[in-house]
């Protein structure tokens, strides 16, 4: 059992802190956002993540998990300091390391005994060494030893707890093997495969993984666009190529592109790193560009189906970048909805869990529906942007009756063409012919 300070209690910090407590460690989660800490101290969970609330409650009750704004004392009381603060995209496309630097400097000022500092945040190659020097530059007693270890995070929002508890692999990048082992031992109860690397390789593994997955998504979306032009069906094509074990079926769902807090910023950051090194990563640039364009394919389909959008009311079902999360960061809805409004449409939105997040992003630019059927009633068309369970099991008869014009434009291929035929609904989707 180790004592751990989790610095940054967002999606990654809260899930990691809670799960590390669940496997037996004593964890204090800290954050500079005092409101967030206060909520958590009251047992309220600031994010939507299946299974998390119960696990937080269980581990708080067991005395293994607590929340504090007193970062200095959490650092003093802990063996390991996990850094899980955000690394958002800077205007240049680079990862903004401002939060990382301020944490490193804080740790430096409060280091009174040996600590292992673990970087969970996604950071550009070479950041581990920068963290080392930021800590060193702020230490009152430069004799105190410490290690900086890279341990990138691979959890997926929406299944983050399960992803941690059934961890597929653990990457540990360290200079000193003893420090690497100490970090690997924290995850030992999970019985996962651990890969020991240099800090640079560990940092690169995270970006390479996300860039590769983004490439698969942009690739299948480009194939979908071709399928539409040649009358092929991208669902059949994805199944056909995905059954080849060299390719694999994951991340071959055609749609309106990737979003979220990771793929967009991480692909940009890797591209920035390549540019900095004088390497033109043309493939990655195309992946990013294809994704940008893909966000707007539903607008084109809608205009084809409805003509001029001025004076129309469009229902948008699904706002989060994927199901089972309330995260709207870089969601395709953030690009598409303003484009619909700019084209003259009024927009009525509904999402099963992201409505309060949506109000922060869209304010009074859209109308907020209550439930699917109230949202679509009287609308000229309905768009599906997120494949929430609620949207893949719609009562199609009601949909047809409630829409002013029975047009559904589905950005996530929630329905088979066979199941949408014969309902009197004009159904447009991605990489497939339209049916009615
Ligand atoms: P987040 O924005 O949800 O959380 C970051 C938290 O850090 C916030 O609560 C913020 O208040 C806090 N913070 C900022 N500065 C701080 C400081 N100086 N001291 C203490 N707390 C501070 O971000 P996230 O989604 O959890 O992502 C964190 C990192 O993990 C990023 O680098 C991200 O790329 C990476 N990551 C995220 C995911 C994901 O699915 N969200 C998956 C893998 C990796």
From TrEMBL:
Family under the similarity heading = Belongs to the UDP-glucose/GDP-mannose dehydrogenase family.
Q: Which residues form the active site?
A: 262
Task: Supply the alphabetized keyword list.
Answer: NAD, Oxidoreductase
Q: Name one GO biological process term.
A: polysaccharide biosynthetic process
**Pfam families with a match to the protein in the record:** UDPG_MGDP_dh, UDPG_MGDP_dh_C, UDPG_MGDP_dh_N
**Positions annotated to bind NAD(+):** 31, 36, 87, 122, 157, 265, 329
PANTHER family to which the protein is assigned, alphabetical: UDP-GLUCOSE 6-DEHYDROGENASE TUAD
Which residue range or ranges hold the UDP-glucose/GDP-mannose dehydrogenase C-terminal domain? 315-417
Protein name, as recorded? UDP-glucose 6-dehydrogenase
Protein EC: 1.1.1.22
Enzyme class at the top of the EC tree: oxidoreductase
Q: Name one GO molecular function term.
A: UDP-glucose 6-dehydrogenase activity
Residues annotated to bind substrate = 154-157, 206, 251-255, 259, 322
Q: Which reaction does it catalyse?
A: UDP-alpha-D-glucose + 2 NAD(+) + H2O = UDP-alpha-D-glucuronate + 2 NADH + 3 H(+)
Asked whether the keyword NAD is assigned, the reply is: yes
**What is the purpose of this protein?**
Catalyzes the conversion of UDP-glucose into UDP-glucuronate, one of the precursors of teichuronic acid.
Q: In which pathway does it act?
A: Nucleotide-sugar biosynthesis; UDP-alpha-D-glucuronate biosynthesis; UDP-alpha-D-glucuronate from UDP-alpha-D-glucose: step 1/1
> Per the record's keyword annotation, is Hydrolase included, yes or no?
no
Q: Which InterPro entries match?
A: 6-PGluconate_DH-like_C_sf, NAD(P)-bd_dom_sf, UDP-Glc/GDP-Man, UDP-Glc/GDP-Man_DH_C, UDP-Glc/GDP-Man_DH_C_sf, UDP-Glc/GDP-Man_DH_dimer, UDP-Glc/GDP-Man_DH_N, UDPglc_DH_bac
């Amino acid at each position: 059992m180790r004592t751990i300070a989790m610095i940054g209690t967002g999606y990654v910090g809260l899930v990691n802190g809670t799960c590390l407590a669940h496997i037996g460690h004593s964890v204090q989660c800290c954050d500079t956002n005092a409101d967030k800490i206060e909520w958590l101290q009251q047992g309220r969970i600031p994010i939507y993540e299946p299974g998390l609330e119960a696990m937080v409650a269980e581990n708080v009750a067991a005395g293994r998990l607590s929340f504090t704004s007193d970062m200095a004392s959490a650092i003093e009381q802990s063996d390991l300091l996990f850094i899980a603060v955000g690394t958002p995209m800077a205007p240049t496309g680079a990862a903004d390391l401002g939060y990382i630097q301020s944490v490193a400097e804080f740790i430096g000022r409060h280091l009174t005994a040996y600590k292992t500092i673990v970087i969970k945040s996604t950071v550009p190659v070479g950041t581990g060494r920068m963290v080392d020097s930021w800590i060193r530059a702020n230490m009152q007693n430069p004799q105190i030893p410490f290690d900086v270890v890279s341990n990138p995070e691979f959890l997926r929002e929406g299944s983050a707890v399960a992803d941690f508890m059934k961890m597929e692999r653990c990457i540990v990048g360290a200079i000193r093997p003893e420090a690497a082992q100490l970090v690997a031992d924290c995850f030992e109860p999970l019985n996962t495969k651990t890969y020991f690397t240099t800090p640079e390789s560990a940092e690169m593994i995270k970006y390479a993984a996300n860039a590769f997955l983004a490439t698969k998504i942009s690739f299948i979306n480009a194939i979908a666009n071709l399928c539409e032009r040649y009358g092929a069906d991208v669902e059949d094509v994805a199944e056909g190529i995905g059954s080849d074990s060299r390719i694999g079926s994951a991340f071959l769902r055609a749609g309106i592109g990737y979003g979220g807090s990771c793929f967009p910023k991480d692909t940009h950051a890797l591209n920035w790193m390549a540019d900095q090194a004088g390497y033109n990563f043309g493939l990655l640039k195309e992946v990013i560009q294809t994704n940008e364009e893909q966000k707007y394919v539903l607008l084109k389909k809608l205009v084809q189906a409805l003509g001029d959008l001025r004076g129309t009311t469009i229902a948008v079902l699904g706002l989060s970048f994927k199901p089972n999360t309330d995260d709207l960061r870089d969601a395709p809805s953030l690009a598409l909805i303003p484009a619909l409004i700019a084209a003259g449409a009024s927009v009525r939105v509904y999402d099963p869990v992201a409505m309060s997040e949506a109000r922060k992003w869209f304010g009074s630019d859209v109308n907020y529906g209550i439930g699917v059927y109230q949202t679509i009633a009287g609308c000229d068309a309905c768009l599906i942007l997120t494949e929430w369970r609620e949207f893949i099991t719609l009562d199609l008869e009601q949909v047809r009756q409630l829409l002013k014009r029975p047009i559904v434009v589905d950005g996530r291929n929630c329905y088979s063409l066979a199941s949408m035929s014969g309902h009197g609904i004009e159904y447009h989707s991605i990489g497939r012919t339209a049916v009615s």
